[in-house]
Specification:
The chain has 206 residues and is of the alpha+beta class. The protein is built from 2 helices and 10 strands; from the N terminus they run αββββββββββα. It is elongated.
Length: 206
């Protein structure tokens, strides 16, 4: 009885030793696969940035933007083409997720991102704000994201933010949209006033 047990024990140890090359090969293969996927993702990211090369450089905040109307601390979750929440924009660092400090003034929206590119959205370029649940691969509960729509060059962009205090996001939506409506009304009034002045001047000249 003792001899067969000794033989079985020896065979089990031998099998364990024999399995190691297979295990090491499997682990190396898995690591190579992960490295390949990561490399392909980086190449895709770079290629997308190249395709978006016509996007103008981001603007810097003015030296004297005026007093803050609202401030927010939270996270920046990315930007996409407006209305297309999966069409991520990566040019000029807009695809980099980061912490964020938002400051809204009469001059516009200042986006400060530690460790990433800061940018400024002039008030005239703001197009709208809403609460939504997802952007560029980030999905939260309904209304969990503050989405700000703005124009840059020939492109309309949706940028997603998440406040550390989600309850304040509704105030941001209301304030931003009221600000945009007021600016649009003022621009329309100024345009009408300029047209009236031109017509009056032409009539006087005749």
């Amino acid at each position: 009885m003792t001899q067969p047990l000794a033989v079985l024990t020896a065979e089990r140890k031998s099998a364990d030793v024999t399995d190691w090359p297979d295990r090491i090969g499997w682990i190396v293969g898995l690591l190579l696969f992960i490295a390949l996927v990561y490399w392909l993702m980086r190449q895709g990211w770079k290629w997308r940035g190249t395709l978006q090369g016509d996007l103008p450089p981001l603007l810097a905040a003015p030296s004297a933007p005026g007093p803050a109307r609202l401030e927010l601390s939270g996270r920046y979750h990315g930007s996409t083409t407006a209305g297309q929440w999966l069409d991520r924009i990566v040019a000029h660092g807009l695809g980099t997720r980061s912490r964020v400090e938002l400051t809204l003034t009469d001059a516009g929206l200042d986006v400060v991102r530690p460790g990433a590119t800061d940018f400024f959205i002039p008030a005239a370029q703001l197009r709208g704000a809403r609460l939504d649940k997802g952007i560029a691969g980030k999905v939260l509960t309904e209304g969990g994201l503050l989405i700000v729509t703005w124009g840059h060059g020939d492109k309309l962009i949706d940028s997603g933010f998440r406040s550390d205090h989600a309850a304040e996001q509704a105030e941001w939506v209301e304030t931003l949209n009221n600000m945009i409506d007021t600016n649009s009304t003022n621009s329309a009034d100024n345009s009408s006033s300029m047209n009236s002045t031109t017509i009056t001047t032409e009539g006087t000249a005749r």
